Every structure is written in C-alpha cells, then in structure tokens.
Amino acid sequence: MKNFTKMLWIFLLVFGNIYSQQEKGIVGADNWLSNWAEFKPNSKDYDEPTQILTGNITENTKLYKRDVYLLLGNVFVTNNATLSIEPGTVIIGDFDSKGSLTISRGSKIIADGLETDPIIFTSKRSVKRAGDWGGIIILGDAPTSKFGNGSVASFYPRLDPSSYKNANYGGDSISSSSGILKYVRIEYAGKRIKNVGFFNGLLLASVGRKTVLENIMVSHAAEDSFEIWGGELNLNKVVSYRANGNDFKFNYGAQCNVTNSLAIRSPYVSSSERARCMQIMAYNNKQEVDFTKKGTNVIAKNLTLLNLSEDLEGDIKKGLVNEAVYIGENAKLDMNKSVVSGFNPAVILEDKIRINQESLEKIKFTDMYFNNCNGNIFVENNTNNEDLENWYGNSAFFNVYSKGSNAETFIDLKNEKRPDYRLRINKIIASNEVDSDLRVD
Q1: In angstroms, rounded to a whole number, what is the distance separating the alpha carbons of residues 16 and 322?
Q2: Residues contacting residue 143 through CB under 8 Å, at least 6 positions apart
Q3: Peptide bond preceding 143 in cis form (omega within 30 of 0)
C-alpha cells in the first residue's frame, strides 16, 4: 500500500509538471489555427470585384458572400451606421488608390465570420506584397492618456476638412462597443503615406471593452500588424504573421488583455525601424499625455512569440534579429505562461527605466518559457544584466530557460498549410536555471 501511494504521488507530480508546462504558449485541445488561418496567402486567388465601396457609408449596410467588394480610396463608416459583413465575404483593397476602411467613432463593424468561412480583407495583385492597400482603422470613444481626444486625420492627406470629425477618437465610455471582428484575415495591408509613415494592418484607437476581437489574423503587414492606442479591450486568439513592423504595439494608455495569441517573425522581413513582437509604450513624448489618466497597462497570457530563423546565430551576426519585447518608461506589462523563442535578446527595457523594486513590480514575467534566445532580459544599451537575471531568475517566478531548436520545441512547424505552434514540451526537460542547456529524451 505504501509503495502504491508513493507511486501515485510520483505520477501526480510528473503529470502535473508536464501539464503545467504544456499550458505555456498558445493552448487548446486542438490546433485552433487549422480551419481559418492562412500561412500562404500569396497562393490564394479571388474572383474579380462585383461591387465597389467608396466614400462615406452613412447608413446601415450589409456585405454578402455572393459578391466580392473593392475598397476604393478611403472608405469611412459614419453617422452611427453599422457595417455588417456576412461570413466568407472577400473585400479587396484597391492598389492604385490604396483603399482603406475606417469605422468612425460611434459607428460599428459586425464582421462575424466562421471558423470554416472567415471574412477576408486582402490584395488582388498577381504578386501580392506588403502595403498593397491601406488597412482597417476602428475609432472608439473609450479613454486615452492624451490631453483631449486624438485624431488620425494625418492618415488621409487629402481628407476634406468637413470630414475631420470622422477621424477623431477618444472619450469616457470604457464599456462601449465598436462591433465584432471574429474569424477575420487582413492580408498585405500597410500602404505608405507620404510624410507620415504607413497604415497598419489593424489600428484600434480608444476601442471599448464590449468590442469583440477574436480569431483575427494579420499577415504581411508593411507596418505594425496590431496597433492599440488607448481604450480598454480584450484580444483573444489573434495572430500576427511576418509583419514588417511590430506585431503588437500598445500606446497612449491602452488597457489591454491579450490571451492565447501568436506572433511569428521572419529575420528577412522587417522595416527600416526596429521591429519587435511586442512594443509597450506609455507615450512617444511626455508632453502629449496627461499623467492623471491611466498609463499603458498590458496583461499578456499564453502568448507564443517566435522568430523563424534557420540559422539563428548567423542571422544575429547579420543584425537581422531583434528583441521580442520592448517596454518603455511608465508602461506596465504582466506577462504569464508565455513562450519567447529565438530572439536577440528576449526582452529589452528602455534605458529611462530605473532598475529597482518599484519599477520591476510593474514589469512582470512569471511562468515563462524562454527558449534559444541570445540573452534574456536587459536594459537598453547595457550589456550587464546580472540584477535583472537575479530578479526574474528567482524560483518564485517559475520562469524556465532552455536551448532547443524550433523543431524540438513546437509540435509541427513544417506543415505549410496547417502549422501547429503549440509547445511540444513533453519531449523537453527544461530547467529554471538561467542559460541552462536543453536535454532531449
């Protein structure tokens, strides 16, 4: 009986340890990317457009799967109207006019796709490239940390002055809704704007917490895939794939929960600016924000941040691999049960952040899996990270460090149609010792 009890305890300990480790990174009993995500969008061809969307949409409008729509120029949904999109509908961003879609403050988009019938925003060019069209902007009336409200009018250089109000965002309604984006793909967005920069794949400005944002994939964006300015929102099962810019960028008091989500970077796809999986900022300039308002606060759980380098050491030497996460002064991050694999290093803190207990309690990494990174957590422009390693390497944080190849670490990266980026942890014996070696059964 004693032996049986002892064996039972050993079994529960081993099983519990494996189960808890498998909870890191994106999770699910099945590969939730399988039916709706697309990792080779350039191979997809769509019918010619049968309907044109242009100018302002000022009344409730529905788009149907039976038609293919062309976004011509900058299209605004205004006047508290709702744009509803049927599952399976394809919307083409016009290349010549760099078509874009903006949901103005007070209006809504209901893009409620299905796992087997996603809604697709994409390019129609025979050879598709990042920046073929504009992107999607959703403007809400939740708070930001800026003085007054904000505007995205600069994204539209030839915007008529009478339409400036349609480009404003911000307010006091934390629980407002700008609609639904669910099972939606946004491909090859990010047009260049002269003297301004680029559109993003999806810009969410002052979006309220009742907005549903789930199962969204932004691929091959010329700038950031997801950019969040202010607001209070939840992102669940969202995917950024091979963005030129950042995968997820938070700023201006964004209060955001990101769960069960994925960012896949390529060392050979990047903008001229330094790009990361996650950039968490409180502001660009201190003078533009009101410190009596909430600063940027991101809670991230079960994320997988992965750099797809075939030769990581060589790509690092060529300067092609950056850090996965960058955290700016006065911004907060609580990251838990996430995987960071193949970066240089895993995390960088802005050099304006004072390294003391008060600061580090605002930047939390717990139950993490740091794999095959060229260093873990550093302060910008400082190669001595002993204090940070001692802090985050403390066993109380349950962080794990390993040196495994991508093939050994993830379930199935080679499947071009249906890759599986869940952690293959049952084959790995990892350690909570910093810079530990990986051992494979």
Answers
A1: 34
A2: 170, 171, 172, 174, 206, 230, 231, 232, 253, 293, 294
A3: no
pTM of the model: 0.91
Residue 242 structure tokens: 């091979």
Query: What's the pLDDT at 441?
Result: 29
| Phi, psi angle pair for 336, to nearest 5° | -140, 145
Compute the average pLDDT of residues 388-404.
Answer: 91
Q: Give the list of residues 6+ apart from residue 182 with CB closer than 8 angstroms, or none.
A: 111, 112, 113, 212, 213, 214, 215, 216
How confident is the model over 101-128, as a mean pLDDT?
Answer: 96
What confidence score (pLDDT) does residue 433 get?
52
pLDDT score of 154 more than 90: no
Per-domain boundaries in the chain: 21-440
